[in-house]
Amino acid sequence: MNPEIVKKVVEAALLASGKPLNIDRLMHLFAEGDFQPEKNDIRKALTEISDDCVNRGVELKEIASGFRMQVREDMAPWVSRLWEEKPQRYTRALLETLALIAYRQPATRGEIENVRGVAVSSNIIKTLTEREWIKVVGYRDVPGKPAMYGTTKEFLDYFNLKSLDELPSLAELRDFETINAELDLQLPGLEIAPEDKVDAAPTDSAAEEVAEDTNDEVADDAEASDKEVVEDANDDVTDDEEASDDKESTPAE
C-alpha cells in the first residue's frame, strides 16, 4: 500500500474517532489481505501529519492514551463561542486536592488533610472520581485501612500529558487562583459550589486613611474642647466683673 494512503487513512481515523488512538489500534484499521504497514510506517505517517499541522488551527498531540487531533490552545477564544454555556471553574480546594494527589500519589485522604490543614469534602473526592481523574489504587496498611488515591490515564489525557513526568515542577507552580483562571475548564453539567469569599485585609494605604481620619477627629474634638474651656473661662470673668460693678454702684446706708 502506498505510504500516502497510509497517511490519509491514519489522518481520517484520528478525525473520525473523537478519541485518542494508539499505534496498535491504527494498525488494526488495515484489513487482512491489504498491505499491512509496519509500526514504523504508522509512526512516519503520524510525524508527517504533525508537520502538516504546524501552521494550522489544529494539531496532532500525543497523550497517555495515544494520538489525537485537537484544536490548538491559542484558538480557544474563537472556537469556544460554538458553545453557549459558560465554562465551569473548579474551586481552590478541589484544585489543591487534585494537585496533592498528582504529586504525592498514592495519597490517603488523611494525608491530604494534614497538608492542607482542613478537612477534605466528600464532594471533592466524589467529583474527581466521577470525572475519572483519580481512583483507589490500594489501601494503607495502618489501622482503618484508609484508601490510597492516584491519578488515572483520563487525567493525563484531559491535561494533554503523556506521562506524570510532564507535570510542571513544584518550583514552577504558581498560586491556585492563577491556575484556576488559566484552566478555565469547560465541564457542562458539573456543578461545584464556590468557596466562601473572605474579605481582604485593608491595604496599607487604606489603613493610613483610617488613621488620618481618626487623628483628624481627635484633633477636632481637642480643638472644640479647648475652645469650650476658653469660652467658659471668659464667661466666668464677665460674670465676676458684672457682680463687682453692681456692688460698687449700690449706695451705702
Question: Secondary-structure map with pairings?
Answer:
Elements: H1 3-17, H2 23-27, H3 39-52, E1 58-63, E2 66-71, H4 76-79, H5 92-104, E3 107-108, H6 109-116, H7 122-130, E4 134-139, E5 147-151, H8 153-158, H9 176-183, H10 204-249
Antiparallel strand pairs: 1-2, 3-5, 4-5
Helix pairs in contact: 1-3
Question: Care to describe what's here?
Answer:
With 253 residues, the protein is mostly helical. Among the domains are: 3-78, Arc Repressor Mutant, subunit A; 92-183, Orthogonal Bundle (Arc Repressor Mutant, subunit A), CATH 1.10.10.10. Helices cover 51% and strands 10% of the residues. It has 10 helices and 5 strands. A 3-stranded antiparallel β-sheet has the order 3-5-4. Strands 1-2 form a two-stranded antiparallel sheet. The protein is elongated and about 60 Å long. The model is unreliable at 185-215 and 241-253 (pLDDT under 50).
